[in-house]
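Forum: Protein Structure Q&A
Topic: Joint prediction for protein chains with partners

I've read a bunch of threads here and the consensus seems to be that you should model interacting components together rather than docking separate models afterwards. I'd like to see that in practice. Below is the full input, 224 residues plus whatever partners are listed. Could one of the regulars post the assembled result?
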Amino acid sequence: EVQLVESGGGLIQPGGSLRLSCAASGFIVSSNYINWVRQAPGKGPEWVSVIYSDGSSKYADSVKGRFTISRDSSKNMVYLQMNSLRAEDTAMYYCARQVAAAGIMYWGQGTLVAVSS
Amino acid sequence: DIQMTQSPSTLSASVGDRVTITCRASQSISNWLAWYQQKPGKAPKFLIYKASALETSVPLRFSGSGSGTEFTLTISSLQPDDFATYYCQQYNSYPYTFGQGTKLEIK
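Posted by a regular:
Agreed with the consensus. Here's the joint model:
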């Protein structure tokens, strides 16, 4: 069974840093495209970043230069390092697995990030 | 970036009704479109991919259609469990983008 479990969220002051973790089971992260998608309170989802099976990555313009996606194949985990956090980064952050031509099929339960002084 | 526009934003309907939600892309995305259902406090649930392919375990009352820039999600006979917010999402190119959502409410 495919499972994604996020952790690492919390309350952080503007300008601070957080690292989100995504523990995957039921599949191998290094053979898949893994995305981070966030959803601000009362808003629709917003794609944030993806790490491809070859290890390359892409970012939304809103986080480029501040966020870094990575993975640890030995632990079957994906991470999102978030630096220089802003109030507008406040959201539920979901880790999500993309499946070939089907798009983003599997989602974790999310971890909440709140940026506030 | 490809903009996705859903209509209506809110839809009031009754159990047993047939409802249709429309999603328009700002440029052609072929059929690289997915639909999700989301309930409060939960992650989006994957319903449909490639515009019209139903994910396994999704009830057959759900259907999707369209290609290019115009797409629809239809629920043929609303059930109590279907009242939720629905999002379309294009995965033709990054950045993947979502519609603003359609909230399906009980009339």
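Residues 30 and 55 of chain A are 8 Å apart (CA to CA).
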